[in-house]
Design brief:
Elements: E1 2-5, E2 11-15, H1 25-32, H2 38-46, E3 50-52, E4 55-56, E5 68-72, E6 89-93, E7 97-102, H3 119-126, E8 147-153, H4 156-167, E9 172-180, E10 187-190, E11 193-195, E12 203-205, E13 213-221, E14 225-232, H5 239-247, E15 260-262, E16 265-267, H6 274-277, E17 284-292, E18 299-303, H7 308-321
Parallel strand pairs: 8-17
Antiparallel strand pairs: 1-2, 2-5, 3-4, 3-5, 6-7, 7-8, 9-14, 9-17, 10-13, 11-12, 13-14, 15-16, 17-18
Length: 323
Amino acid sequence: MEKEKAVDRGAELVTIPSELEGSRLDFALAKLLEPYSRAMLKHAVESGGILLNGVSVKARTIVHTGDQVTVEIRPRPETSAVAQPVAYDVVWSEQDFIVVNKPPGIVVHPGAGNPDHTLVNGLLAAFPELSSLPRAGLVHRIDKDTSGLLLVARHIDSYERLVKMMASRAISRTYDALVHGQLVTSGSVNQPIGRDHRLRTRMRVTAGGRPAVTHYYVKERYPAQTLLEVHLETGRTHQIRVHMSWLGHPLVGDPTYGQNRRKGVLRRNDAPNVQLANFSRQALHAARLQFDHPRLGETVAFEAPPPNDMRELLDTLRSQALR
């Protein structure tokens, strides 16, 4: 994919690559502009924010190799959520963005089954200006039972810049992950991830999925578990959980991917003690964010320690390792 800045502010030119020859415009845009939801892209097409070779077209229009698409996303405000008090920590707040530390158990965004009392509801209560931004300014998401840092833009300029930085992998995200089994060395998983067609709420490693790369580094080893530092090169749904399960080392407490079938062998989570057995969520924490300030350009970094439940579990495992 080739991109260059267009003349108008906030717009960019996207060249259709050969692999998307004959695709519908909306399908091609979803592949090329990953940070934007399909709803946002559809709105952009309908509102004239997307031109194909300089002409306004419909989402179903067929595109061809070398076609030039002018893209100007005109985000719609967050209209589905209401302001509600929700418990979370603000790690950093300034005029361009906010960094929050989400506790485990809180859904990030309203949706089916979770209409309110999400992080977005809490953000709108504390920062009413976010109501004018898509997704209340959220640049990325983490799972309900994953804890840790999230980046929130505070106005439309920083939102657009940060979303593009996320798409270009210019925002570094580091996680602490406690997995079953002992990993001897650090490594990477480069396996595509797609929807599990048998169970739509799950993801899986599949040849027809989207590219996904996860890098992991051994931080601490325990008798039957390993604490990893994990870096995401891509941001697929459930990426760390899926890749670690595929590797044969599922996350401690993961209710969805805690069983892993690989090379015909079913691996189960055999908890060594009651505390491990009772850890009922995936032991995953978004520990660090690092990126260049969207307006000033200087590198900024933020860290958050794991929440109490994960910290107490790690302390127990460390004490066991010393015996």
